Fold each of these.
Amino acid sequence: MVKEVSHRYANGMNRLAAGCLLILSLIICGSANSQGLDNVAGTDPEAGLKKAVGSFERGNYERALELFDQLIISFPDDVRYSIFEFMKARALLKLDRLNRAEENFENFVNEFPGSRYIGDALLLLGDIRFLKNDPYGAAYYYIQAYDRLEKRKLKEKARVSFAGVVQNHLSLPKTEKLAENVDRYELAPELLYMKARKETAEGFLERAGNTLEKIREKYPGSKYADPGKGELTGLLSGASEAFTIGILAPLSGGMSQFGVDMLRGIKLALEEFSISNPSTPTRIEIYDNFGTQKETINGVEQLARGGVDVIIGPLKSENAFTAAGLNKYLDIPFIVPAAAANGIASISENIFQITPNSEFIAEAMARYAMNDLMLDEFAIITPSDDLGEDISAAFAQ
């Protein structure tokens, strides 16, 4: 009997010891995890944010996502909490996790309606919707973003993106539906004007006239309500005498900054031209080629069908070669503003290449260095892209 009790007592003590060891191991692991979190995000949210943003700016988006997630968990009451959430959504978008990025941006917009980043979030939601083949949703978000953005460059990007989507990707019924839902936004008059242009293109001249009359009644201060505008007069009469300029540029994607800047410059030049030449109406047709060859082909074909008188673009040399090849079968002048590769202008008589090619640039530099500066020893420092390599090779020759 004594032996049996002793045996039970020993078994009980063993189970108790095992339980204590399990609890102790959980405490140690939890402490280690907590310490790991502190090492990543830091005990100071400002320092943690700086570290996370640094990872994001260096292109280490996985690491940035991890850091922003930990900041969200560690500092839910911090005044920068909305920034943590916004940047997490941006990191997800950079990683092409569109569904999660969209969900996070939508939650951000709903949870922090007064944030100074609302406009940026709406603009990025527009990009996401477009990438997900929802042009109507993209246009709707771009319209909202325009009203909430503060920086002029971003506002212009929202407006250009909106115009490109409506013009190139929305049917007339979808455009009508969108116009009904956004009448209180700043871009509403421009949307109605684009609707009138679509109605004119499809032969609904009376409807186009009614749409333009609505602009004058509802938005009398808008530039689209001015009956003296040449294009407006042409639309009302169903005429198509305006000189039409096609714009083929990357207004979305990695080169969008250059495309938007080019479009802004063209519009500024046309405004100045219209002041000094009021009897010569002009208008522009915009196609966003995303900087890709596929969309360059689609853009050239669509602008040609639209009857443009000239096309400005594209920007990249590889896309310019593609456009020039198509131009051999068209009777439309192309002005290529930035592409500098050799041989673009030689493909077709209608191609006008503004930027000198790499050989010309290199030869001019070499002549100046040798003849004017009297130098005969050189070190070449050049970027490792195609243009840099072409120029350095030509200079060396």
Note: Residues 1-13, 15-38 have pLDDT under 50 and may be disordered.
Amino acid sequence: MRWSQWMSERARATEGREGAARVQERAEMEPETRETEEPEGGQPEAAESVDWVALADALQELYAAETPARCIQSALAAAAEHLGASFLLVLLLDQEERSLTAAHLAEIDHMRVSKVIAALDQDPAELVLPVDGERARILRSDGPTVTGDFRALFAGAISAEQCEEAQRVLHIRTVISLPLAARGRRLGIASLWYRRPSPGLKPARKLVEHLALALWTHQAEDRARQYGNIDPETWVFNRRYLFEAGRRELYRARKHERPLSLAVLDLVDIGRFEEEYGPTLAAKVLRSVAVRLAGAASPIDVVARYEDGRFVVLLPETDRAGAEEQVTRLIEELGEDPDLLPVKDGPEMRIAAAVASFPEDGASLEALIRSAKGSLPQPEDKGESQEQAAGGVTA
């Protein structure tokens, strides 16, 4: 995901939450009987009375749900109570948008889910359904598809005979399937199963519309949290995440009396390199160094960009001797890497590093970083040895 796209999604994610506040206002304007609609594969629906205010209250629960699974569970409850639906099946697209899954059902504790699993003799949460055939058509459609059964939804995964038997056991007479779409993005398919003929289409569309927006909001917030911890230029953690992780590790080290160290690494010549070769190649150098640092770090280490050409490596469970040994090895590996710089026969890129350990060098992350930065070579000392750099390591 491009950084600009993420920023846009992060700003728009809050709009989904605002949707809940508008539900009540819209509901009061809805008529008690609905206009006639012509769905695909079905006849115009019959007029039906709906308590729109009660439905609006139920729709607000979708936006208040803490997880997508809880959101879908709230939608299932609303479909049963206010739409008279026997079941709501939600199939969500995977990241590659090549298959649909109902894995979230494993997190939903609802009697209706148990009944469907028993009737199908198959847990839908375990199914991975390719986007093809009728599923692809529903996903790309702009309106509801009304049929008398749900065989097409499970084609290739559950036999037609088993679907027919399940439909008989569950007394399903009408299936309304709609695409889950919000903000121009297709999220999956929502399928409402009814025990009566000609159920209302407008309440179904209203429920699915808000379910899609609530799910989109969850996905956007998840992406915001994921990419909000990443520095867009170097692809390692950013300064904000460094301080979050640092505070957690300091608390753990203090509580359990465990060692904790960090290293500050400084690309001494990055400013001169940028002046000579431009910001694009300088950014490639930063990313190249960051990726190699992250690749060499252990699973519990945290590699983060601190500022400009400076990185911090947080080293839990590591004392000063271990930190100095690890950083020396990292510096040597970077210095011997022939592909570190994007230009051949260019200027050397010196990397200086210094370590600090808790508690001897500081009791907070800020104090530890300040201590390590104080041990880095000063401008007039750059290029000197580790001993001459007061604890720094220079390659």
Note: The longest helix spans residues 201-228.
Amino acid sequence: MSVSQTLFGHRTPEGELLCVVALMRELPAAARSRAPEDHAATGDEAGDYARLLQAAEDGLRLLGRRGDGDGSAAAPVTQLKLPVFHRDRTLLLDVAQVAWLQADRHYARVTTPEGSFLSSVGLGDLECRLDPARFVRVHRSHIINLGYALELEREHDHGHVILDLPDRPRIPISRSRMEHVRRILGLA
């Protein structure tokens, strides 16, 4: 059984590619290299990995726009509600309310304008379930809702996204994801 069948109950090209992209993003930098552990990846190998990841993300966007080849529009397989814990209850948050998600061990911390909640679903699984047109992984520990992005601070080859919440949280953007985030925000 594939990852997308496990997550969504059926197999779709979008689900398969979405999970591949999520797993590629989770892969530690050392595992991305063909070199032994005591040698760092060369610039060529790191560039090959970045190009492969970009191609997979581009393919995912194309599948979302053009369908699966039969002329029909693809229906994105996305989650509309997000289960979170609050006191002794499980709440179902509307994903549109989610400003950002942060890894918290095997769980995810979900932040909304109303507060912060813990979800038993891990960040990698959530990335597969959320709409990639709205939610973007900016760091191995952070996914943001683009609707809450207010400002981008760039510091050399990495930076922060400032979110439109009362406390103006600064979410880190990793070096490896900076160009992708800039492209999504229309800055590249």
Note: Strands lie at 81-86, 89-94, 100-104, 107-112, 115-119, 135-139, 142-145, 149-155, 158-163, 170-173.
